[in-house]
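stage 2 :: seqdesign
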């Protein structure tokens, strides 16, 4: 698996022999569907548009110098939100993100019953002593 690590994805590849490229494709879909941090900050009222534009400019400037900077970290650095706000927004972002199993169902790789069964097996696997 490439950039994004998913423990459930690793489990599917190594235990159930799912194709790694297929899991990567599903993770890319998941990444593309993620609601941008700035949009959530605006939606929740934690930031105004002026602050979002300011952070995007900071992000563009740092990216131009070869740094990868996360919107939330820059917003905290700029004093536009608190670290607690950043954690709250990250939690909302994660909650709204479509889960890997759901994406695999959407892709037609597995059906809903298989997804449920795989998740049950995964949770059992995690609960076993190492």
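stage 2 :: out
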């Amino acid at each position: 698996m490439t950039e994004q690590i998913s423990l459930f994805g690793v489990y599917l590849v190594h235990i159930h022999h799912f194709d790694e490229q297929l899991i990567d494709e599903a993770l890319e879909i998941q990444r593309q569907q993620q609601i941008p941090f700035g949009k959530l900050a605006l939606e929740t009222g934690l930031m105004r548009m002026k602050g979002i534009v300011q952070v995007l400019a900071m992000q563009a400037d740092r990216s131009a110098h070869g740094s990868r900077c996360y919107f939330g970290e820059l917003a905290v650095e700029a004093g536009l939100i608190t670290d607690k706000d950043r954690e709250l927004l990250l939690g909302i972002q994660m909650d709204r993100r479509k889960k890997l199993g759901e994406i695999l169902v959407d892709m037609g790789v597995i059906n809903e019953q298989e997804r449920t069964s795989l998740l049950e097996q995964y949770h059992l696997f995690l609960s076993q002593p190492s």
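stage 3 :: structure notes
- The first helix runs from residue 7 to 14.
- Residues 36-96 form one domain.
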